[in-house]
Amino acid sequence: MLLPPPATAADAALAKCAAMEERGTRLKCYDDIANPPPPPAANGEAPREPVAAPTPQAIPQPPEPYLAETWNLGVTDRNLDITNIRPYRQTYILLSRWTDSVNHTPSSPAPGHSVTTPLDLDGQELKFQLSFKSELVSRETFEKVGLDHLRFWFAYTQQTQWQIYNSRNSRPVRETNYEPELILTYGTDNASGLKLINLGASHQSNGRALPGSRSWSRLYLQGGWEWGRYSVLARGWGSGGTEDNPDINDYIGRAEVVARWDSEDKSQMLSLLLRHNLRRDPSRGFMQFDWRPIRLSKTTGIHLQVTSGYGESLIDYNYNQTTVGIGVSFLDWK
Predict the structure, then answer these.
(1) CB-based contacts of 123: which residues, under 8 Å, 6+ apart?
(2) What digits encode the pLDDT tens for the residues 67-84?
(3) Quick one: 67-330 is in which CATH superfamily?
(4) How far is the C-alpha of 292 from the C-alpha of 262, rounded, in Å?
(5) Is 83 left (phi over 0), alpha (psi -120 to 50) or beta?
(6) Who wins on pLDDT, 191 or 1?
(7) Predicted local distance difference test score (pLDDT) of residue 159
């Protein structure tokens, strides 16, 4: 019987690289193996050519965790800037979304912000969300001043509810929410547990005239934790610019937690968002459950969504409803 050959130093080095969690650190480790420095010259001889190392492609690379990948927390040789677009929140199209209670008369305690004539709306509509972010300051710039743990982002999220099946009223777009953000990220370099701390500023509005105008601005502090395929993002905020909807914090809330699980190849995903006003009386909140159970292609999958509570959109910030939607989501790109 043939015995397996003994492990070489090169094999051990490759195994060490493969065990590294952060993608950038792992790739740098492989580069160092593939391109070792030449041995020093001895007795005036010319430096010897380095011995070629085994190709690192032969070693399967473990997938990078979700937060580490989407927030670029690892070491990288890329000069990331405004042209490098990354995922932020989920991007999806719910081809059919149903609600158990239609808000025919959106209202706000602000003067002139309440609809007086009931709107002719359907309980079934199309909903879609687009969300992305990009680094505004390159990694090299931070490294030059000794701040290599920092990232600075611009993020944008747009969510639209479209009455596409309401042919009797020319299929109107019922609501669109726009939310640009600036986010300063500090990466902890932890292999697990607390991975990042975000300080963010956001403005969200629906861009509508009275009586449907809704908007607010927030400053928030957010922490991100990760254990293998499981991640948690939690944040609390203070708000301003709420003249259109002065009681918005009592409904949409003052803090939220997002827990997420990804399959090993990132094709399947479970996500649960919980938001609350941090009050006992009245206690109000919002829940959103997202599930991508089936991969349709390299970039898409079936997407299911269930929401319940206040604030599925800005126009419904103080309206309690439960919705169910099904459609297609786009897998987070690298």
Answers:
(1) 98, 99, 100, 102
(2) 888 898 875 545 555 567
(3) Phospholipase A1 (2.40.230.10)
(4) 9
(5) alpha
(6) 191
(7) 98
DSSP 183-215: EEEEE---SSEEEEEEEEEEEEE----TTS--E
Residue 205 annotated to the active site: yes
**Choosing from 205, 215, 231, 313, which is the catalytic residue?**
205
- Whether this model's pTM surpasses 0.90: no
Q: Residue 214 corresponds to which tokens in the numbers above?
A: 């809704």
Q: How far is CA 204 from the centre of its chain?
A: 17
The domain segmentation of the chain, as residue ranges, is 1-39+52-62, 67-330
Catalytic choice (203, 239, 276, 308):
203
| CB-CB contact of 298 with 270 (8 Å) | no
Assigned token pair, 249 = 């914090």
101 is catalytic: no
212: left (phi over 0), alpha (psi -120 to 50) or beta: alpha
CB 217 within 8 A of CB 203: yes
Q: What are the tens digits of pLDDT across the range 100-120?
A: 999 999 999 999 999 999 999
Q: Which amino acid is at 102?
A: V
